[in-house]
Amino acid sequence: MMRLYKEELKRILRTRSTLLFLAAAVALSVFMAYVPITFVRYTYEENGQEITIKGKEALAIRKELQAPNAGEVTPEKMADGLKAYQENLAIYGDFYGDFPRNVYNSEISPWSPLVQKLHEVTADPDSGLARDYMDITEDDALSFYEHCRTHLADLMKLEQKNNPKAQEIAVKMYDKVSMPFYYYPGYGSSMAEYEGFYLFMLMFLCAMITAPLFSCEYQTGADDILRSTKHGRRKLAFVKILAALLISLVTFTLCMTIFTVISNSLFGWESRRTSMQILFSAVTLLGLNMGQLQNLVMFAGLIALLSCVSFILFVSSACKNTTISTGLTIAFCLFPSVFYMTAGSNMSSYLRVLLPSGALGGSNAFFYTLTYYFEFLKIGPLTVWTPWLLMIVPAIEIPVFLWMTVRMYCRRHM
Amino acid sequence: MEITLEHVTKHFKDKNNKNHPVKKAVENVNLQLTPGVWGLLGANGSGKTTLMRMICGIMKPTAGRICYDGIDIEHLDDAYRDVIGYLPQEFGFYPEFTVQQYLEYISALKGLTDKQAKTRIDELLTKLSLEDVCRKRITRLSGGMKRRVGIAQALLNNPEFLVLDEPTSGLDPGERVRFRNLLSEFAHDRIVLISTHIVSDVEYIATQNAIMKNGEILQTGTTQELVSQMHGRVFEAIIPPQELSMWESDPKVQIVNLRNEKDGRICLRYLGEQTDIPNAVPQNPHLEDLYLHLFPKT
Questions:
Q1: Would you tell me how many other CB atoms lie within 10 Å of the CB of residue B158?
Q2: pLDDT band at residue A298, thresholds of 50, 70 and 90?
Q3: pLDDT (mean) for B164-179
Q4: Cα distances (Å, whole numbers) of residue B195 to A153, A402, B42, B85
Q5: Contacts of B154 in chain A (CB under 8 A)
Q6: Cβ separation of A15 and B111 shorter than 8 Å?
C-alpha cells in the first residue's frame, strides 16, 4: 500500500500541469504577500509641492508617526486623539478641502486608527449613521469601551431586526472580547484581505491539480488495466485521495508559510498583536489580535480547501474526461463568489455555507464574513453565526465527499 | 484451476434505439475454461470484449455468475484480481510515464514489492525486447511497441489466468510469431484466453476455442474438432479470369481466397460443394474456413 502511495504521488508530481500549478502557487504566494505593501503611501508637502513616498519607506514613516500611540488603547488616548481631531477641525473645517497635508500627517494621522473607532461606536443608535467628530465629547472618548458594547447592541438591532436570538448571541460573544484593545502600527486591513484572496487562488490551483486525477484514467483508457489489478479498486481510490490531500496540504503549508513570513516581515511581526477591532469594526465579535485572525483565516481556508479538493475528487471520479472535470472545477470554484455577489438573497447565504468552496472567494469569503458582516443563519430552531458554519459545514463535508468518491470510482462501469 | 461462466448475460441500455431499448451484448454464456490457451473467436461487435471485461471483474454481468475454482469472483474480489493479468483491446497510458515508470506503477498496483518488481520488470523488458526503450515515454513509441508494453504489464504478476483482448493488433508478422511463442511457453499450467478476429493468431497455439456470435457462444472445442466440421466443404478450383465475376456472384460459392496463376488463370479457394465449380479439388480445412463459414460477411 505504501509503495502504491509513493508511486501515485510520483505519478501526480510528474504531470506537467501539476508542476505548473505548484510553481504558480509558490510564485503567487510571494507576489500576493508583497503586493499590499506597494499600496502604502505617505504624502507630504515640500516647497508647496506634494511628494509621495511608496512601499516600505512609506510604511516606516507611518509606523514612526504612530509609534507613540502603540500599545494599549486607553480611553485617555482616545480623548487625546479626539482633542487633536477637534482642534484641527476647528481651524481647518474638514479633512477634504484645504486641510494642510503636513498638519494631517503630524496631528491627525497618528491618532486616526484610534479615533476612527471612537467615531464608529458613537454612531446614532437608530440610524447607525456616524456623528460629526465635533459632536463627540471627551466623556464619549473616556467611556469608549462602554460605547463599544452599546453600539454592538444597537447595531444588532438594525442588522438582525427580526432575529432576537442572533442579537442575544452577538452580545454574549462580544462580552467575551477582551478589553482594552491593543494597537501596534504596521498592519493594514489590505494585508488580511490579500491573505483571503490568496487562499482562494490556492484553493483554485489545488482543485485544478485534483480535477484530472480520476477522469484522466477514464479518458486515456488506462482505467481498464488499473481496475483489473489487485489494488486497482478501493485501495487505488484511497491512495489517489490521500495523494491529492497530501499534495494540497503540503502546498498549503509551504505557500502559506512563505506568504506569512514575507507579509509579516514586511509589515512588522509586532503588529500581529493589534486587536482586530482596531483594524476592522470595533464591534467585531471575536476577541482576536491580527496574528490570531491571520491564523484563523488560514485554518478556515485550509478546511475550505480540503473540502473543495474532496468535492473535486468526487467530480473527477464521476466525469468521463478531463475537459468536463476541469470545466466543472472552474465553475464550481467561481460559483459561490459570483452567486453571492449577484443574488444577494438569504438563499445565497445558505448556499454559500453548503458549498465547500463557499468560504473562499470574493465578498462571500470567510474573512469578510468574520470582519465586516454580522450575519447569522437559522437552522431549524438554531441560530448560528455564519463564520462558524463556514468552518463546520465544509469540515463535515470532507468525509462525505471522500466516501462518495470511493463509491463512485468503485461502481463505475459496473 | 478453472474459470466457470454460468449463464453469463450482459444487457446495456440503448438510448439511441427506441424500438429496442435494451442491447444484448452477451447472452447466456456457459463456458468452462481450463489450463491451456483458449481462443475466443468472433467478429467485431460479437460481444468478446464485454465478455472479457466481465471475466476480469471490470464489469458485472446482468445475470449469471463467473467462478474461479467454484467461488464467485465477486466474493474473491482482490484475491481474484491478484491471479489475473489483463490486456484490453484499447488502452491508454498516462502521458508522463516512461516504459519503466509505467511498469513500476502497475507492479505497485499488483502488490509486488520493490525487489520483486525490479526482477520481474527486467525479465519482461528482456523477453519483450523493450530494454532499449525502457527510458522512453510510452506516448513516443510505435503501436507495436505500445502493445508489447501492454503485454508486459499483463504478465507482471505472473498471472494464473491471462486475458488478452486482440493482443496482436499492431504487431508485425515477426512480433506475432514471437508473441505466440511467448504465450505457448507461458501457458503451461495456466489459463490464457485470447480474443481475436485474426484466426491465425490462435490457430496454432490454442488448445481450445470458443466461437462467439451476437453475444452467444456458438461452438467450443479444439481446433481439430471445430475444423473437422468443414471437411468436404473446402475446395480449390482453377478458373479462367472471365468466369470470376460469375462465381463471385454465385450465392452457393463463398470465396475464401484468390490467387493469380502464372498462366493467367485464377486459383480459387472456396466454401461450398465440390460440384459447384468444375474440376474442384477437396482441400484440408483451416480454422479460418470455419470462421468465414460462420461469419460470411467478414
A1: 16
A2: very high
A3: 82
A4: 78, 37, 8, 14
A5: 225
A6: no
Instruction: Tell me how far apart the alpha carbons of residues A335 and A59 are, in angstroms, rounded to a whole number.
Output: 37
**In the β-sheet with B266-271, what is the strand arrangement from edge to edge?**
B254-260, B266-271, B234-239, B281-282
Shared domain check, A167 and A190: no
The residue segments making up the domain with residue A390 are 2-38+185-411
CB < 8 Å to A7, chain B = 104-105, 108-109
Q: Is residue A23 part of a domain?
A: yes
If asked whether residues A132 and A199 sit together in one domain, one would say no
Q: Which amino acid is at B114?
A: D
pLDDT classification of B274: cutoffs 50, 70, 90:
low
Q: Which of these three, A146, A180, A214, is where a domain ends?
A: A180
Instruction: Find which of B55, B89, B96, B151 to mutate to test the A interface (most A CBs within 10 Å of its CB).
Output: B96
Tell me the one-letter amino acid at B78: D
Q: Which letter, b or e, does each residue of A62-94 get, where b requires 16 or more Cβ atoms within 10 Å of its Cβ?
A: bbebbeebbeebbbebbbbbbebbbebbeebee
Mean pLDDT of A328-335: 88
A222 assigned to some structural domain: yes
Architecture per CATH, domain B3-228, reads as 3-Layer(aba) Sandwich (3.40)
Q: How far is A246 from chain B (nearest CA, A)?
A: 19
Domain termination residue (choose one: A157, A180, A203): A180
Q: Does A19 touch chain B (CB under 8 A)?
A: no
Across residues A108-127, what is the average pLDDT?
90
CB of A346 less than 8 A from some CB of B: no
Q: Using a CB-CB distance cutoff of 8 angstroms, which residues of chain B are in contact with residue A15?
A: 94, 96
**The three grid cell numbers given for residue A144, joined into one nine-digit string:** 469608549
- The reply to whether A124 touches chain B by the CB within 8 Å rule is no
Number of domains in chain A: 2
Q: How many CB atoms sit inside 10 A of residue B289's CB?
A: 23
Is the predicted pLDDT of residue A80 greater than 90, yes or no? yes
Co-location of A143 and A247 in the same domain: no
Domain-located, residue A55: no
Q: Tell whether the model's pLDDT for residue A306 goes beyond 50.
A: yes
For residues A24 and A137, membership in a common domain is answered with: no
pLDDT of A99 reads: 80
Whether A190 and A275 share a structural domain: yes
Choice among A61-75, A352-366, B104-118 with the minimum mean pLDDT = A352-366
Q: Per the CB < 8 Å rule, is B96 touching A230? A: no
Residues A335 and A263 in one domain: yes
Place B178 in a pLDDT band, splitting at 50, 70 and 90.
confident
The reported pTM is: 0.86
The reply to whether residue A224 touches residue B58, judged by beta carbons under 8 angstroms, is yes
pLDDT of residue A414: 62
Specify the pLDDT at position B154. Answer: 93
Closest CA to A226 of A403, A413, A404: A413
A175: left (phi over 0), alpha (psi -120 to 50) or beta: alpha
Q: Which residue in this structure is represented by grid cell 441500455?
A: B13
Cβ proximity of A296 and A209 under 8 Å: no
Whether residue B86 and residue A225 make contact (CB cut-off 8 A), yes or no, is yes
pLDDT exceeds cutoff 50 at B298: no
A321 and A190 in a common domain: yes
Residue A211 C-alpha from the chain's centroid:
24
Contact B182, B127 (CB under 8 A): yes
Q: Is residue A355 part of a domain?
A: yes
